[in-house]
Structures are given as structure tokens and as C-alpha cells.
């Protein structure tokens, strides 16, 4: 078996959901070992968390800069090869940039940066350095999402006419209505989260899913956002109309105050030959729609699925796979890229997905601020 890739973790300590997700995902396919980390900026919490999860403490560093400095002192075959950046949004850009410039591969949480200009800089830095860069749009790792992509690529839907992506959560509803609570939430703080909360956090997932599954790029958007309170500087709900450079049109609906909703990401793509619909809360079912046949249901692990879908399926049919497996598929693709092995372009989102995602976020906010006007998404 190939030697395990040495992984470093930045952030994701304590009860962080993202931290658990990335750590477990990195273990699933036996490609990585965590050898160094800065889990928390508070040293006691940092070192205690490493002990709690059974990570050796000799390479648990006091801060990010020390991690890079000390790792570069080690022989190349011993040092961290790739770092997962799991910090709040405002730290993604400076950390990813410094990692790339010092010869590390990067797996970065989304949004990749807090501004489009930062995203373009990061793209340039990556081009100057021979590195692998992945943005963890986790849902692209689900086998049935990958099946959706391959079926559309193979022409199963014909000419795409309509797209509809929805991402509804309700977690902000208990927070947003109390001034003190909303003022103390980092995702509602522009200095830490960037210019957008809802669209920056989950709306960008819907945007990415549309482009990932259809293989088409959204050309222009018109957005209408909701801030709910005058003192709240961040969107917590919104809708964007989208147009492609064909006659296809669509809508992105996103909310974090949809009371009672948990993690309701749904995408539907309609062509002149048929339609496909997938729901994140029921990820093992891909619904195939047509005018002249009953609804078909595709499920993971069956021979009728595409090679990309089957490659991301670890269990026999009938055994549910979920979010950990989806993230693990992204880590698997990154491992193949780091080792120089052949891989499918759909195995992990790249820096270009991050760049387009930041353009989407900024243009959505700008469109709203300018009175709901059409604006072009930039590369």
C-alpha cells in the first residue's frame, strides 16, 4: 500500500462539527495520518484536545506561523504534506496563501476567501506553485450527486431548460431575534465571516451544486436578500434568479431562518428529455423524471451507475452512506492528485470553484444593494 499522506489540521478543535467531519473523512480510505495541528488558538485547549483525540503532542504547535516554521525544519519525507484549513472564514485566505507559498498542498473549507479579489490572488499563487488545492464543497462527494453529473454529461436530460436549487436551514431563527445574541455570533460579524452570512455559508453550496451537476456556468444573477433587522449587517435569507449563456434559467433559494428546517439542500435539473432531483437529507435516492414513464429511483452501489458514482460508493447497495463518506470522497480525490495518480475532474472542487463561489457571493450582495439588478458572474 502507498505510504500515508501526512496531514496537518488548522482549526476544528473542541466540538466543531467541521473538525469531526474532516478528521473522520481523512481516515476512511486509509490515505492520511494526522501528524501536526493547531486545533485552537488557546494553547491549553489546543494541547488538551490533541490528547483527547489521541494525536501525538510533539507536533501540536502554539500557532499557525510556528507550525509552518517548525515543519520546514524537518526532512521533506517527514513534514506535513497537506493542511486542512478549518478556521473561521477571514483566516482562510492568509493561511492558504502562506501554506501554498511554503510548499504545502491545501484542503480549504468554504467560502475559500472573504472577497473575490483575495480568491483571484490565491488562484495566482497556486499557479506559481506546484500544489494541489481543494475546496470542500462536501455535497459533490455524494455518489448520487456524481451520478447526476455523469448522466447530464451523457445527455440523459437533453438540453437543460430549468434549474432549481434550494438550501434551507433554521438554526439562526433562535439567534436572530435577540440583539445580544445576533451581535455575538461570528457568522453575523462581517469582520470574521465576510460580506455575507446565508449566501456566503450555504447559498454558495447551491450555486456550486448547479455548476457541478450541469457542467454549465451561471452567467448572470439577480438577488433579493433579507437582513430582517436594521442593525444586522449580514443576510440571513435570500433568493437569486440565475441565467446561463444559453436559454436556460433558474433559481437559488437559501435561508437560515426557515423555522424547523435542518439541512434541506435540494437540487432539481430539468431538460427537454427529462429531469433529475436529489435531496441531501435523503442522499441515497436520485429521482429520474420524464413525461412518458413512471418516476425512476437510482440508488448507490448498483452496476447501472457511472464509474465516478461507483468509485465514491464504499458499501453494498442498501447500506446508507452519508456526509462523512461524501467528504471522504473529496479527500480520496485529493490523495490521488497529491500522489500524481489519474483522477476524474469531478472528484474534488478546485480553486476555480472557490473563485466563482466568491464572485457569486459578492455579486448577490451587490445586486441586492443596487436594487435587485442583473450582474455578471466573473471568473
Automatic annotation (TrEMBL):
Q: Name one GO molecular function term.
A: nucleotide binding
Q: Where is the Gfo/Idh/MocA-like oxidoreductase N-terminal domain?
A: 6-137
Matching SUPFAM superfamilies, A to Z? Glyceraldehyde-3-phosphate dehydrogenase-like, C-terminal domain (SSF55347), NAD(P)-binding Rossmann-fold domains (SSF51735)
What highest taxon heads this organism's lineage? Bacteria
> Coiled coil where?
none
List residues traversing the bilayer.
Answer: none
InterPro entries named among the record's database cross-references: Gfo/Idh/MocA-like_OxRdtase_N, Gfo/Idh/MocA_oxidoreduct, GFO_IDH_MocA-like_dom, NAD(P)-bd_dom_sf
- The segment(s) forming the GFO/IDH/MocA-like oxidoreductase domain are 145-277
PANTHER family this protein is in? Answer: CONSERVED EXPRESSED OXIDOREDUCTASE (EUROFUNG), OXIDOREDUCTASE
Q: What is this protein called?
A: Gfo/Idh/MocA family oxidoreductase
Amino acid at each position: 500500500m502507498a505510504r500515508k499522506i501526512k496531514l496537518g489540521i488548522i482549526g476544528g478543535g473542541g466540538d466543531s462539527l467541521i473538525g469531526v467531519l474532516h478528521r473522520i473523512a481523512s481516515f476512511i480510505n486509509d490515505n492520511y495520518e494526522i501528524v501536526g495541528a493547531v486545533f485552537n488558538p488557546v494553547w491549553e485547549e489546543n494541547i488538551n484536545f490533541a490528547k483527547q483525540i489521541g494525536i501525538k503532542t510533539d507536533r501540536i504547535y502554539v500557532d499557525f506561523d510556528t507550525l509552518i516554521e517548525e515543519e520546514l525544519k524537518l526532512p521533506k519525507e517527514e513534514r506535513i504534506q497537506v493542511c486542512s484549513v478549518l478556521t473561521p472564514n477571514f483566516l482562510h485566505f492568509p493561511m492558504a496563501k502562506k501554506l501554498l507559498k511554503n510548499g504545502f498542498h491545501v484542503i480549504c473549507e468554504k467560502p475559500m476567501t472573504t472577497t473575490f479579489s483575495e480568491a483571484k490572488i490565491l488562484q495566482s499563487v497556486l499557479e506559481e506553485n506546484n500544489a494541489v488545492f481543494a475546496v470542500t464543497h462536501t455535497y459533490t462527494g455524494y455518489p448520487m450527486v456524481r451520478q447526476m453529473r455523469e448522466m447530464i454529461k451523457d445527455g440523459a436530460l437533453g438540453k437543460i431548460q430549468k434549474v432549481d436549487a434550494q438550501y434551507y436551514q433554521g438554526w439562526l431563527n433562535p439567534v436572530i431575534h435577540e440583539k445580544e445574541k445576533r451581535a455575538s455570533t461570528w457568522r453575523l460579524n462581517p469582520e470574521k465571516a465576510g460580506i455575507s452570512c446565508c449566501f456566503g455559508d450555504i447559498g454558495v453550496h447551491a450555486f456550486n451544486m448547479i455548476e457541478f451537476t450541469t457542467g454549465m456556468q451561471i452567467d448572470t444573477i439577480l438577488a433579493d436578500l433579507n437582513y430582517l433587522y436594521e442593525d444586522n449587517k449580514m443576510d440571513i435569507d435570500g433568493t437569486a434568479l440565475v441565467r446561463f449563456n444559453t436559454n436556460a434559467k433558474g433559481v437559488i433559494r437559501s435561508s437560515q431562518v426557515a423555522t424547523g428546517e435542518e439541512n434541506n439542500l435540494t437540487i432539481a435539473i430539468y431538460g427537454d428529455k427529462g429531469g433529475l432531483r436529489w435531496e441531501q437529507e435523503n442522499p441515497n435516492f436520485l429521482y429520474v423524471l420524464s413525461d412518458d414513464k413512471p418516476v425512476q429511483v437510482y440508488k448507490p452501489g448498483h452496476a447501472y451507475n457511472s464509474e465516478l458514482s461507483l468509485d465514491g460508493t464504499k458499501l453494498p447497495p442498501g447500506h446508507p452512506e452519508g456526509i462523512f463518506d461524501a467528504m471522504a470522497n473529496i479527500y480520496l480525490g485529493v490523495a490521488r492528485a497529491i500522489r500524481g495518480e489519474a483522477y476524474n475532474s469531478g472528484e474534488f472542487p478546485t480553486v476555480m470553484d472557490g473563485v466563482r463561489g466568491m464572485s457569486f457571493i459578492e455579486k448577490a450582495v451587490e445586486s441586492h444593494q443596487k436594487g435587485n439588478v442583473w450582474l455578471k458572474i466573473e471568473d
